[in-house]
Amino acid sequence: MERDTFTTPMNASRSGGLSLRSTATKRDSLAAELERDPQLSTAKRQQRAQVFTSSMAHANLERQLVAAQTLKLELETKLREKDLQVERLERDRRWFADREKQEREEKERERTEHEEEKAKADGDLRTLRNTLSTLREEHADLVDAHSSLSRNTAQTIASQKTQITTLTHRASLLEEELAQTRGAAEERSRTIETLQDQFDELSSAQSRFARKGAEEESMNVVREELHRQATYLRSLESTNAKLTSELNMLRERHASVEVLKEEKRGLERKVTLMEQLREKAVKLEAELEAARRERQMWATNAAEASTPSKTPVSVTRNLAELRLTHARLLEEHGATAATLRRREAEIADLEKREEEARQQVATLESDVRALKDKVGRREDRAVLAEREVGFLQALVASFTAEEANEEHAVVDDAKAQRVHQLESLLQEYKDANLQLTQEIDALGGDAASLGHGRTRQELSAEVEQEQQQRLELQKSLEAAAAETKQHLDKIEELEQSLFELGGEIGAGRHVPPGVRILSLKDNPEQQWVDLRQAAMDRLKGENEALMKRLKELEQSGASASSGTGSGEELVPRESWELVNREKTELEDVVKQKEKRLLRLKQVYVSKGAEFRDAIASILGVKLAFFPNGQVRVTSIYDLCASFVFQPRSKSEGATMQLVAQGEGGPQDLPDLMHYWIEKEQCIPGFMASVTLECYENSKRSGGGNSL
């Protein structure tokens, strides 16, 4: 509504008031005059009616003026509120502008830093690609070298297994031959004992022959022959002693063979350990290959990025983590390669030692063959001795027969025949001894030599040297086993570290070596850590107080009687302070929430009032909402024209239904309700029609400018 349409008829009211007072004072005279003049009285009545009408209009105008002034005050109040709101919005706008400027500068700085980091990352990526290509070539070379070494090692292991099988077979044969040699030596010992008994018998017979005094010359020959036989028996005894010493030496050699078997088993264990190390190296190479494939995938993803600015920070972080993992894997690969080379050197050393042991076995086999030849010679000698014993037995029998006969002529012929036989037998012995001497000379010396021109002292020294070497090899084997165990423990530690680092990297808590992470002193993480530490400290203090209280109760032994005391004695002060602090915090939280709810209610009330005022100004109706869901609609042009609506079920057409109405409203309200609500089911059309009718009625009655 416009302010120019209102005027202030103050003078008119004053003049009207004066006329009324003058009319009241002169009522008697005027009444007399009016009675006398009817036309004058009619004019006076019309004048009074006009004065009354003008006074009513003046009162109406005053009421409108008061309403306008009230509306003006309300509008000024709203204007001040709007100014305050505009000022607040302007302040917020300036703050947002400053924030936007700061964010723009920060984004520009971050973009510059991101471009620099991206350029640096691109350079690092190119360097890593070059390094990756170099490492691939080196890895290919290492793979080729490893494959060749694996093939050579497999071939060496196969040949060693074959040689070990052969040596085992040879050792079993040597054991069998040694057993046979022992049996033959025992049999020869028994034969020598039998010959010794026979010799004793012959000696007793010879003594008897000497007592009888017959055939002194032939008996001298027999004595010489017997003396020669005794000398031969003594040589047999010395030979038996030599064979016994050789048997002992063979037993020592057999012990050396057992040592070689033990070394062979140790070599097999080392080969098994090398197989395990090789499997470990294969696993590490597989992990290295997996890491390389993952790095290639990340490099491919980084290369396929559309613009430089689209590279995410996670890719850069993952690239750095992969770079560190790659360096660590390179170090582990170098350590594994060094361990592999060291193991290969140990294998070569063991192969060399095995070759030396094989040579020793060959030497022992040649010695065994020489001993077999010597045993054969001794068997030949034993056969000759048996033949000689048989001859001597026949000779003794003939002597006995000659003693029984007294025919000297026959005895002389027999003696001549026996002498001839003895001479022939002596010649055979000489030939046999000559043949044996030639065989010994052909073997390389006297009977004390054992083949290859080496004496027993040399062989004993060699055996002692071999034993020392065996002890050294055993010590080196134990050292290698300890070192292998250390390396295995180190490999397990590296695997555990790799697993833990994988978890740390996956969780984002890994800090690479040589990298320092800077953070603000008061950051969210530090606050969270401080809160956790404070909570832990409180819990520790409370726990200590409770434990102390429990100890006091246990010492006092008054668990039941303590219930009669005050409750403060049962609860530690730390627990009470903690509960009180939590209570205070909860009360503060409740107060803050209540304050927020009160503010929200005030905001809702103010916004609801603004909403209702806006609807009243725009649609011309006032709204009132009730808790049961009903809505009361009142026209501002006719306060008696009110209608109450409530929601209805969704199965019906309209969403609202009319449940009550006021006393006022237009005259054709039933027709409007029948048409708009019952027939058209359009509540907005009904309210628009009612508002229009009420506005027209208000305008006709003179209150159209009430807005």
UniProtKB/TrEMBL annotation:
Presence of the UniProt keyword Zinc in the record: no
Chain spans, region Disordered: 1-46, 99-121, 553-572
GO CC terms in record: kinetochore; mitotic spindle; nuclear envelope
Pfam families: MAD
Keyword Ubl conjugation assigned: no
Compartments, as annotated in UniProt: Nucleus
Positions in coiled-coil regions: 233-301, 340-374, 419-497
Biased composition (Polar residues): 1-23
Annotated Basic and acidic residues bias: 25-38
Keywords in alphabetical order: Cell cycle, Cell division, Coiled coil, Mitosis, Nucleus
InterPro entries in the record: Mad1
One BP annotation, GO: cell division
Family recorded in the similarity comment: Belongs to the MAD1 family.
Protein name: Spindle assembly checkpoint component MAD1
Organism: Hypsizygus marmoreus (White beech mushroom)
